[in-house]
Every structure is written in C-alpha cells, then in structure tokens.
From TrEMBL:
Name of the molecule in the record: Branched-chain-amino-acid aminotransferase
One GO-annotated biological process of the protein: L-leucine biosynthetic process
Family: Belongs to the class-IV pyridoxal-phosphate-dependent aminotransferase family.
GO cellular component terms, A-Z: mitochondrion
PROSITE patterns registered for this protein in UniProt: AA_TRANSFER_CLASS_4
Taxonomic lineage from the root: Eukaryota, Fungi, Fungi incertae sedis, Chytridiomycota, Chytridiomycota incertae sedis
Annotated catalysed reactions: L-leucine + 2-oxoglutarate = 4-methyl-2-oxopentanoate + L-glutamate; L-isoleucine + 2-oxoglutarate = (S)-3-methyl-2-oxopentanoate + L-glutamate; L-valine + 2-oxoglutarate = 3-methyl-2-oxobutanoate + L-glutamate
Co-factor requirement: pyridoxal 5'-phosphate
Keywords: Amino-acid biosynthesis, Aminotransferase, Branched-chain amino acid biosynthesis, Pyridoxal phosphate, Transferase
SUPFAM superfamilies for the chain: D-aminoacid aminotransferase-like PLP-dependent enzymes
Gene (name only): BCAT1_2
Gene Ontology MF terms in the entry: branched-chain-amino-acid transaminase activity
List of residues that carry N6-(pyridoxal phosphate)lysine: K222
E.C. code: 2.6.1.42
Class of this enzyme: transferase
Length: 392
C-alpha cells in the first residue's frame, strides 16, 4: 500500500533547513527609516501617467532560510542590487500585488480591503515556495511607508497612490528549487482615473489560440509570468483594433478573464430571470478584490441572481441573438470596471449592449452603479468596513 505524506507548509519546509529553532517573522515595530535627502517634484494630476513616476521612498524586507525575516527598512526609492545568478532572473520566481491609497474629504488616508491583498500575496508566495510572512505586520509596515510619503497621495477624487508589493527569490545560484533567500519590496506611484474622460467601452478579441492559464497552473496567483505571456497576444489583437484579449479555454470556448481583469455578464436567463454571472474560481481565475466586492455588493442588493458558473462564448452569442444579454464588463483595481462594447469571435464582431436608454453612454447602468458605489466606498463617501483608515 502506498502512503502519501501530507504536504508541508512553507514555514515547515523552510524550518527543515534552518539552523535556528524559530525563524524570525516581519515585525513592523522594528522598521528602520532612512529619509531621502532629495524630495522629488510631484507631477500635476492632469499629467499623471500610470506607473511612470514613483514616490520618494520604498519598503524593503529581506529573508534568509537561517534567520527568517530581517527588520523592514523604509529607505529612498532606488535600484535593487541583485546577483546575475539570482533565482528571480532565471526561473521567474516572483509575485506581486496591486492596491491603492486614497485621500478622503477630511484628508485621511484610506485603503480599500487591504487584508484581501495581503491574503492573496501570501497565497501567491506559497504557490512559488517563497517564504510566508505575518500579513498584519507587513500591512503595518506599508502603512508606515504611506504616512512618510503622504504628500504623494493625491487629494482629488478619482486620483490615488498605487501600491505595488512584490516578492522575489534572490538566492545566488542556478537550479530549480526553493530559494534560500528572498525579498519583499513595496514601491508606490500616484495615478489618475483609468478613463480620462469618463467610461470608454472597449472591444475584445476572443481567443483560444493563446492560453493565459490552465487547470493546476498558476492562474489563481498574481505571478509575473501570467502577465508576460499575454503581452504578445495583446499586441497582435491591437493591430486589428481590439483593446484586449478575451481569454477562452477548453473545447467549448469557456470565458475566463478579459485582459488582466475578471469578467462579468449581466443577462436574462432562459427562465426569464436577471442574472449577474462570472466564471468560477476554478484555479484558472485570479480571485480579484474588485471581483469579490462586486459579488458581495450584488448579493447585498438582492435585486437579481448572482451566479458563479462556467459560461461559453456560444452562450453569449445565443443570448445576444435572443436579446437577453444586457451588459458585459471587466473588473480590476485599475479601472474598477471596464465596459465591453464589442467582441470579435471567429471572424465576426458581436456588438455588446451598453445603455439602450442613452445612445451616447459608454457604460451600462449596472456597470456604472458598481463603479460609483465602489469609488464612493474607497473615498469614504459611503461608510463601509471595506474602507480602512490609516492611523497616524
């Protein structure tokens, strides 16, 4: 009889190679601060370009398998020093998060559901055999960074400070295996609204020629490789006038994600009931924070059915022909929601309804409602437990 040994957690895995009884965890209170001697000029809000200008400081935390996590450091934004043999360069052992800080009308700093970002970064690290960490303590260190660089958080509604926590393997050796050294660093950049002039519905190219993720892969983790593989497909469809790919998978052309966002459909099912539908978290779908927020809001409203189930492209076409499809949109941190107006599939373009009551609208009523509600929570205009105030 074959007996399978239970899988070890990362902490158990690394403790087997540690010479110490207990590896140190991240402790926010131990954070050291080295302030920049040069304060950069912050661009005017109207001139902000996503991911182009970075704040004065960054957070840096190192780990090794003998000691665990070192004290977090807040230091001037600058280059990393890594060996050419570092594991991250050769095997792509890297994951990251995307979150934002907002200023409310009173000037307080707010984060939107930061616990979900910490949970997802933790799971992504586990998937890559990167070291685990105390999620609450890492978040406290990030909050310290935000307080130091508070002047970089725009106060105008629609603007925010994008936060990019990243974990990488830094072991200096070639060989596929768990890394004996790692690093978490956090950089930030001020960003404006995704749409400069309001919603702009996008056209998609439904493709199964390229595959973003597959069962048992890393589609449910926020790993750099998941995004790298989508660059060439995006460039190819852009040549034909499409903004992004609509990723299909399997023999039935199941919908998965749109570009780098989760996907939603609002339609009338064959029984005549209104439904909000999104593909299930089957291991190929990233569990988005905005995705979860939309599902929770919709279930709280209780105005229509909320379903997580597989949906195929032929089902979408059938619903269009029967005039049952009401709206489609992508959902993610950058845009909150991104309305979809057209899908190219097997040589045919299919027009997706927006708002039939307003021919000039670039978003359906439900799509816009989700955007307005979530943004209201993010800026503290709508009281909600999801909006967390960073305390001085």
């Amino acid at each position: 009889m074959l007996f399978l040994r239970p899988l070890m957690t990362n902490r158990q895995l690394f403790s087997t190679v540690s010479t110490t009884a207990t590896l140190k965890d991240i402790v926010a209170a131990a954070t050291t601060v080295s302030l920049s001697s040069h304060r950069k000029q912050i661009p005017a809000n109207k001139d902000l370009v996503f991911g182009k200008t970075f704040a004065d400081h960054m957070l840096d935390v190192n780990w090794d398998s003998k000691n665990g996590w070192a004290a977090p450091e807040i230091k001037p934004y600058g280059n990393l020093s890594l060996a050419p043999s570092a594991t991250v360069f050769h095997y792509g052992v890297e994951c990251f998060e995307g979150m934002k800080a907002y200023k409310d009308k009173s000037g307080s700093i707010r984060l939107f559901r930061p616990d979900m970002n910490m949970n997802r970064l933790f799971r992504s690290c586990q998937r890559l055999a990167l070291p685990e960490f105390n999620k609450d303590e890492l978040l406290k260190s990030i909050e310290q960074l935000l307080l130091i660089d508070e002047r970089w958080i725009p106060s105008e509604r629609g603007y925010s400070l994008y936060i990019r926590p990243t974990a990488i393997a830094t072991q200096e050796s070639l060989g596929v295996g768990s890394s004996s050294n790692a690093k978490i660093f956090v950089i930030t950049c001020p960003v404006g609204p995704y749409y400069k002039t309001g919603f702009a519905a996008v056209s998609l190219s439904a493709t199964s020629h390229y595959v973003r993720a597959w069962p048992g892969g890393t589609g449910d983790s926020k790993i750099g490789g998941n995004y790298a593989c989508g660059i060439r497909p995006q460039l190819e469809v852009a040549q034909h006038g499409y903004a992004q790919n609509l990723w299909l998978f399997g023999p039935n052309d199941n919908l998965t994600e749109v570009g780098t966002m989760n996907l939603f459909l609002f339609w009338i099912n064959k029984a005549g009931q209104r439904e909000l539908v999104t593909p299930p978290l089957d291991g190929t779908i990233l569990p988005g924070v905005t995705r979860d927020s939309i599902l929770n809001l919709a279930r709280t409203w209780g105005e229509f059915e909320v379903i997580e189930r597989p949906v195929t492209m032929p089902e979408v076409i059938e619903a269009l022909k029967e005039k049952r499809l009401l709206e489609m949109f992508g959902a993610g941190t950058a845009a909150i929601v991104s309305p979809i107006k057209n899908i190219g599939y097997k040589g045919t373009d299919y027009a997706i309804p927006l708002d039939p009551s307003d021919p000039t609208s670039q978003a359906g009523k439900l799509t816009k409602r989700f955007a307005d509600t979530i943004m209201g929570i993010q800026y503290g205009e709508i009281p909600h437990e999801w909006s967390v105030v960073v305390k001085q």
